[in-house]
Queue: 3 jobs
Job 1
Amino acid sequence: MSVDENMVRRIANLARIGVSDDDVPGLAKELSAILGFVEQLSELDTDGVKPLTSAVEDKIRGRDDVVTDGGYAEDVLANAPEKDDEYFAVPKVVE
Amino acid sequence: MAETNNLIAGATGDWEIVLGLEVHAQVASTAKLFSGAATEFGAEPNSQVSLVDAAMPGMLPVINWFCVEQAVRTGLGLKAQINNYSVFDRKNYFYPDLPQGYQISQFQQPIVGEGAIEIDLDDGVVKKIGIERLHLEQDAGKSLHDQHPDRSFVDLNRSGVALMEIVSHPDMRSAAEAQAYVKKLRAILRYLGTCDGNMEQGSLRADVNVSVRKPGDELGTRCEIKNVNSIRFIGQAIEFEARRQIDLIEDGGTVEQQTRLFDPKTGETRAMRSKEEAHDYRYFPDPDLLPLEFSQDFVDEIAESLPELPDDKKARFINDYGLTPYDAGVLVGEAENAAFFEAAAEGRDAKAVANMVIGSVFAGLNKADLAIADSPVTAAQVGQLVDLIADDTVSGRTAKEVFELMFEEGPEQGKDPAFIVDEKGLKQVTDTGAIEAAVDEVIAANPDKVAQAQERPKMAGWFVGQVMQATGGKANPQAVNKLVMQKLGLA
Amino acid sequence: MADLTELNLAEARDGLAKKEFSAVELTEAHMARVSASSALNAYVLETPEKALEMAAESDKKIAAGEARPLEGLPIGVKDLFCTKGVRTTACSNILGDFTPPYESTVTQNLWGDGAVMLGKLNNDEFAMGSSNETSRFGPVVNPWKANGTELVPGGSSGGSSAAVAARLGIAATATDTGGSIRQPAAFTGTVGLKPTYGRCSRWGIVAFASSLDQAGPITHTVRDAAMMLTSMASFDKRDTTSIERDVPDYEAALTGDIKGLRVGIPQEYRVDNMPAEIENLWQQGIDWLKAAGAEIVDVSLPHTKYALPAYYIIAPAEASSNLARYDGVRYGARQNGVDIDDMYAQTRAAGFGDEVKRRVMIGTYALSAGYYDAYYVKALQVRRLIAEDFTKAYEKCDVLLTPTTPSAAFPIGKNVEDPLEMYLNDVFTVTVNLAGLPGISVPAGLDSDGLPLGLQLIGKAFGEEELLRTAGVLEEAAGFDAQPQDWWSA
């Protein structure tokens, strides 16, 4: 399956990775090659096979409903590229 | 049962509104769904944020088992199918208040399946609204967009708080039905203790799906109005949106599927900025978690601990206390109100108690903007006052006076109704002899009126009024009436 | 004093206990070597002050008779492990100068057992690669050279493998998602161990593919690997995929006795165009184990050839989601934009390298509407078939023996233009990650260019004791003692 340039732009947008017009053809080629490689899976008949999401066979483990975390806003904000007092700051979002 | 006609008249005929609601209810829990940070409302920004909530590199989710319990409890309260096996999926999209770039939610296999609730409409009509599913998911943080010209600010305190998303079937046909649905759902959640239903604080919000069609036609294209956070706004938003869609279609246009926001200031909905791929969430099972599984025992234990729910309580109030459906419905609106009523009604005339609770207590609380927990008049005092009426110590009218005094004074010791009646000398005069004397006096003083009354019996009321005045309002009105009629020869 | 950097972990532990040298001396010797070896570009951040502090603390503990299992032993840490107060970048520009306010569980376990941190090691960006050529800090050079050409040390844990091979740390932490511990170990003549999925906690390790990532050690010897695993492994409540299971003393498993052990030889690992040298080494390995008393069994893992394509759907899919958090909002480097979406697009375009972008995009595609069933679900179904292959094989054998890689280390720059060619490096290793099993690479011989080749042993889930025991026997039989000639010291 090959991906065309429109698809490349669509995927790049979904992934929020900016691509220049110059990048697109090369990416289309590379992605198509990789997809061509992985497509050999369609050779296999997997009817009725249950997908394996995790190698772990154990049951899910949970925690108690107690506060054991948080309360360190300084650490949380310490690496912020931009902040205003106690908030993270980002370019304006228009809804 | 015949459905009320909910059709809206348009230029080209009648239209039917079709409504489905997705309600997001914040789970009443101490800690978040997948992190140990606190969930309390109103904390300093980013002070209830763990490294997991901030989506720092290498952080991993661990489920809060109590939130699972709360979801099961809610599912049982909605008479819904509980799925002992369900899966957490990642819903992928980018937004600054979504730190991971995905929300942990449930897509194809939610924890709760089909259920239903009954909503109470005017005229005592009861309608069943189907619930398609309930699933657990993370809430996002909060963004502030109006503090700065070119910057938005992000507070992640709410990020990761547990939400139950409750999806209804598109069974509602009017704003009133949608409001009744949310009211009922909220009551059930509060009864269960699984969500505090505080819409102002955002613990309960509704996404309203609105579409219109000519009766009998296929479903129209729907628009989703997101995050409506009051019952009043839900009504306004639906009214506006339905009208907008009808006008649009009648003017020759087509309704585009959109996500919209309701603006309370203008009472209008407007489209959100949309991106074409906005809805490709690329759901897949979260590989940092395992499938959510629990035993039937786990479910059964929760089922055994369920409190009596509003509908059952209402039915019991009607059956056991002989209340009207309307009164029962009002009393069970909040569990605390119902409890107040039952405490007051114990061992006495429930209807009389109901009247006083609804008429005086609720009215007084509404006016003073108080919750039942802060009622200046206690359930015991209400009961006592009802007793005083029952044994003719005071008349109904005087009782109202006593009630107001109690309400103003507050529940201090010694200010019980009996005390107040005594203190203010409000005791009803029931002594037949005394009343007879008063009646005789008035009759004697007004011979011309007596003659008039004998011709027009309605004039007896004047005499009753005079006697009441003469006794300072304390005479038992029924006794006065009886004697007046007797003495005038009208009985 | 003999060159303290010639010691392996067990020897150094011994020497410290016998007070032949101090922990500070041991650390200083390694630090000096690290400083002189920048040509290899193995370290992206040296932490000399911290190292000396920790070594001094270790000396105190040793003097007080309170030596912990790894007391005073200097190691390097792959820059994928979050280290508290020490810059952690995953070798990506997008993390900028990110300094975690927390320590990963695995490294915390190591410090808790007395190990000393020399610094952070280079790796392929976000652990995506098989040659350590995609790092923001530039490629790592393999201390092994052939014909004067600079070679790759393997990836993604190239810094870890190069450091250990060049003796810039007695051992190193690494991670393995599709072969990233075992392949670099094979390329550098070191031992690389990937434990069972869930054995080591993933908390605090920059996530690449959640259902495949696993931390493990790169060391000189099998014994050293056992020592490291005993410390690194633990049950961690903060990681839902961490398995609650006691950590045995893995060293105690090294009895040297594999009599009666059934060693499976999977026929499908005999790939087309397999170099004769690799084939011969494999046969050599079979003979060694047979001579040690093992029973050799032919087995079949029929879906082997589909492992690589399945991996290159599953890993990118999970990665595309795991890397969404790198958006310039809360940490790392940010590029300004006219609005939020522009900021995201620019930040991620500038911050991610080409290979990362490719994989994120492949993953995004594989999960997107219309393609999810054909790609992602399909790959997960194939994954189950692969896992079942192993389960069936393990009815007939206890461990499996295969080559680790289809070739020796290749020149830097050879495959950078061809992602698919690069992916083929993982052909023998990815099956193990998909099935969540433990695997180890043991240096077994040299090729005709004098470059190291490794043999891989694959075990049952939580069968690390048996695996290490077998690896110990293989190591003994192979007697690999070649060392790279030092050409890089300043």
Job 2
Amino acid sequence: MTKYIRKEQIEKLQQQFPGILYDAEQAKPAIYVKPEELLAVLRYAKEQVSFSFDRLSNLTAVDYKDYFEMVYHLFSRRYFTWLTVKVKLENHEAPEIASVTSLWAGANFEEREVYDLMGVNFTDHPDLRRILMPDNYGGHPLRKDFEPLVPKIEGGVLTWQKQNHIS
Amino acid sequence: MAKTEPYILNMGPQHPSTHGVLQVQLELDGERILGAKPVMGYLHRGIEKLMESRTYTQCVPYTDRLDYVSSMNNNLGFCETVEELAGIEVPERAEYIRVIVAELNRIASHLIFIGTLMIDLGAATGMIYAFRDREKILDLFNIICGARMTFHYIRIGGVCADAQPEFIAETEKFLEYVPKMLEEYDHLMTGNEIFYHRLKGTSPLTREDVLRYSMSGPNVRASGVDYDIRKIDSYSIYDRFDFNVPLGTNGDNWDRYQVRFHEIIESAKIIRQAIDNLPDGEIMAKVPKVLRPPKGDVYHRVENTRGELGFYIVSDGSTKPYRVHIRRPSFVNLQALDTMCRGMLLADSVAAFSTIDPLMGEVDC
């Protein structure tokens, strides 16, 4: 069955990075990392032999209306354990975080997806473009305050415009 | 050798060997590929957003439309995630039936892989053979749930209909047929010299490549990385079965074909054991009519035919999920396409698309 990181190990991480917060009450602990410390924490968790979280299993973001939360699910192929790393992005208008593509090249598409659908900007990303929505699309559909745009052809060019509400 | 000016060739979205509506921008120098950029989104339906406005039970049919040739595994992944979130215990019999249908679906999906690989390389006969045998599995699904595709058979808390004796008998008949079927493929395809030389040594991926790109599934195992979630992070009741994980050594197209070929044998082994140990009893747990999982979030993953299929669900305590994220294996695997195609000939790119086995329903979600 699924194993999660042990509490002693989280405390060891905390000694290295005092900025890490974590809820000891939860059965499936997730650690909260400051945005500026993210890359250092992930690199430490990946490269230290006692952690060996060498696989980035999943990367996503959640819109909590007044802030965004980045979620990273790391898996250790050596110890078969899980580590959930969460980062709170306070700026809801223009969220920004460092890209983890320097650690896992496979995060490329997933970060592009988050950028496309959530509007989170990743610094130092090699190729940050929209991936699922059209290039000239004007919104980020997975945000909670998103209103669908309507397609319109003007002068042979497909554009996306705001709906006119009937009031 | 004379150098020509590099140019861009758009392959797809309407191309038979891109398995749907994948567009690949190939940068070519003569016939040599200098780079391949996948362009997707043509089938984007916004399933993650749609699920936010549906109840948990209503979400299940959407998962059928992700990887539509192995829907059972998708149903399984989503239902197990919700069960973990809501703390629902699934009855033994339902677990066994789930494993049987999921593994049958894995065989069906690998047969499609073999069939499409053959037709992409120009052997239409091979495709007909593989689709003929896949039809037998679809008939089995027709018996158990009345649908040949998009089953919606695995539900939250169990399965929707019991496995009738007729289904078990027909499945046993199919299991007897599997070795004969594979022997036929061995003679027809594996032993074919043209087929061998088209695949052997083309588009290799090293161990480092597949780990760097966070790939999963048979593509990883073909490069010799022992990473099968059924073994290392077992879910459902997979830890009760005795099966092997086929591994490749070179990570080329040939190994990716061989790994899937041998996975059919292993899946048949699992089904055999599951049928032999199938207990009697309930097929559905007591699930409240209105499902309100407690506040919290869960990430759970299963080994889909194409790799690691993960569901991340955030619940706010209401009847609808606050956020669903689906980690689609094909989507992540596609990143390796550039590495695979680089330096190969244009004709080999078709084999590379085929053996990486993307499914656009899943890539675009």
Job 3
Amino acid sequence: MLKASHKTGLVFFPAFDWAISATHPEREERLLYTQDQVLEEGLFDVNGITEYKSELVDIKDVQRVHFSYPDAWRVMTESHFISAGGAKTIAKAVMDKSVERGFALVRPPGHHAMRVVHGGRGFCNVNNEAIMLEYLRQAYGIDRVAIVDTDCHHGDGTQDIYWHDPDTLYISMHQDGRTMYPGSGFTQELGGPNAAGTTLNIPLPPYTGEAGFLHALNEVVLPAIDEFQPELIINSAGQDNHFTDPLTNMLFTAQGYSELTRLLKPDIVVLEGGYSIEGALPYVNIGIILALAGMDYSHVIEPGYDPEKLKQTETVTRTVEQTCETVMASWKQREAIGQRLRGDQEFAERRRSVFYDTEEIHETQNETLRLCPECSGALKIDSTSDRGAHILAIHVPRKSCSNCRNLGYQWYESAKTKAYDMICIQDRVEDSYLVKTP
Amino acid sequence: MIIGLDVGGTHTDVVLIGKEGLEKQVKVPTDTSALFQTVLTGLEKITEKIPPGQITHAVLSTTLTTNAIIQDKLTPAGMIITGGPGIDPEAFRTDAHYFIVPGAIDHSGREIEAIDPETVKTAADQLAASGIRHVGVVGKFSARNPMHERQIEEIIRDRFDKVFLGHLISGNFGFPRRINTTFLNASVYPVHRNFFEAVKKSLKQKGITVPIHILKADGGTMGLDTSIDFPGQSILSGPAASIMGSVAFAQDGAETLVLDIGGTSTDMAVLINRVPLLAPNGVDISDYKTLIRALKTKSIGIGGDSCVRVVNGRLTIGPDRSGPAMGYGGPAPTPTDALFVLDRSEGGDRELAIKGIDPLASQLGLSVEETAYEIFDKTCREILAGARRMIEDINSKPVYTVKEALQGYQVNPDHILVLGGPAPYFAEHFQNISGYAVETIPECQVANAIGTALSRTTCEVTLFADTQKGLATAPEESFSQTVNLDFSRQDAHRMAAALLKQKAVRLGADAKDIETEMIEDLEFNIVRGFRLMGKNFRVKQQIKPGLIHDYYTISKKIAESCVQSSIDFHE
């Protein structure tokens, strides 16, 4: 009888009755053929593979991560509660040691959802991994975590949420932002002044193949993780690097994804994008599950697989190698980079704009971070959308010092409800979320 | 009148049911080494002095195929397998006579790799050379497109006595289960066929020519001829017989937990509005996970004759049985002995029972009566704990739609129905410690045979329709029809219902008594390149397990007469 050498938990929530719109890539049909493949393989019958029923996250789980306008209920649909809940269910099973590793095969995805949420971005409304991780930190006292994002699109939402968090190493490998949504994720994006180097971006040129992905993994991801020493490794597993994906231009394969999973040894995998619903997803998902469970995946060869045709060019190989060297150089100098960014200022400010493509909302953010020597610093985001919403969002980090925490509350108390549509403070020390509205 | 015959471990129950109710009941000892004789004796006794013309049919539930599998007395069968991307089919090897040949179909039924007739012929040569007479042919995704299985059958069918095709066995996905199920069908085929041909012949010699139906693990019946092609469906019909028997006693609209307490074990099931829940995939037997439709049952190793011990200062009950209760001259103390000591049950020798429990009492530092009470209480609590685990298991089954996730329907029985020999003695205590309303089926110890006699024919049908491909298929029914782009969900429902009715009648159902039920109903837009190209429908319909409509009132009548004659423990 088949046996998993690593006990593996799965949540499968294909949301067969939920779509962004009828012909949208994020539609009912997306995981249909994956379901067929999973059921036909009999994966849930394998000794050591357990299927879990997805729970729903509650509003507190969402408020631990996001500032949603007008509120979490109105930026989320039911499916978002279940999708994030699937990640949470799997994470609990891993933490409770019911299984060694887990994979949440859920939709909709989440890695483009940032800390402030005015609407949907890149098919994402709330960030499944962040909601799961902050729950784990709250409930299980987890501290240092690495998130490795292998979706073809830069996970700008996860990057945003952990930009100032020195305890979360966020590494994204993705198709170069000059050729792909959301247009970010360049090597110089390394995290905020208090967390320099704990964000790493490996932009890969179009037509990167197995060799390039595995090079990035072996030369950047694994060494950085090795040095960072996380308690948990989370993989945001987008499957749109596949050579058949309709939205991207990469040459990755089911074998490549399986190999990557075997080498990365993630504790928790959360499905992100991937829209080649017949040609890639059934095979990539099977490959990832088998690799997680420590089972043989050598027969997971998708139709159309031809190693010769899918080989990346020499130019691509050189570009990937150079990029990896650049990223590793920054990683090694991260202390110095942080010091340079902080200088001797008390506050760091950042102004940026965010576009929500689903509803075409433009948001402008003015961010103020206290450059605290004791903690990662109180954070204040003044956010205005072109729909007229003006909000003030204050984040007191999990390991905040009392000065930063007091400052957070000072900001909160002194902000006038006349000036804002919503003022909120997310206090991760107390695990509370307060809102003032006019 | 209908004959119902249920072969149990120790005795075989036979009933004759007519329009007036239970006409006759017979109990004969089961001789597992001469099952044929047991069945024949049972049928002879029940038909004695009954004019043959009055019997419409007989339904049999035997342990024949079950025992063949559990005791590993299978006739060697060959397997020819086609795989495809995914897990290496070598992992599902049944035995030495297992050949993986080229050929692959993908999840959507497209051919990825053609079969190679020469390799198939070579495999067939080797199987034939090993003396194999029965062969199973199974392809990955054959439930979506059975083309390769049929092509292979075409090549090999003249070489063997019988070829079983995986896609005909179930419309459900699950390649390893399909392999196991096909293998079991091929392996029990000779023993099943020989047995029932002999039964038929012997009955004919005695002038009894009634149609014979076979009970299945899902609590439904199939005609004998069908069972020859699908002998695997007859496994584990024993628990189904008891549960179907309890259906007559359950209340309309209630969620009922059925506990069938036997000597060695307690079998459990859940009825919702008198319909038993089905197992989600298929039945497990020995080391085989199958696609054989079965009632959702759970068996725990606690019964009236379970061995009671003290281990590390604590009482343990079961899971083994070493013989009858000491009160009946058995070798080890049992919960039944506890009943004798507590004067809750009669018939056994109380002194012998005390002698059995006494050593346990001194180990525990309690009196014999106190120990007997502890045994009694623990038996009831462990049975209920087992039931709770089963219900948790049912409720933790994942759902795949937002609607189901939000509705969060949870099974929550408020009634317990207890069957089996020791049932009446435990019932009151169940009620005290669970808070559920508890009813027993005490005198009526042939509920299993009644269930066997009155079960209706069940079956299910899976229909796929893809309007982009312009095809509706039900491979299990060997059905395929072209459809237009405007083929709708309602069309799919109608098509599935028609297929289901045909199938039910073919299996022996009364065409007037067919109640269909939708068990899966999904519709997907097929979008390619951001354009809507068509629709994909997946419809599954079934005839749910239940009692034959015409006999509904009769089953009620039998149930009432049984209950009236029972001891009312509330007093």
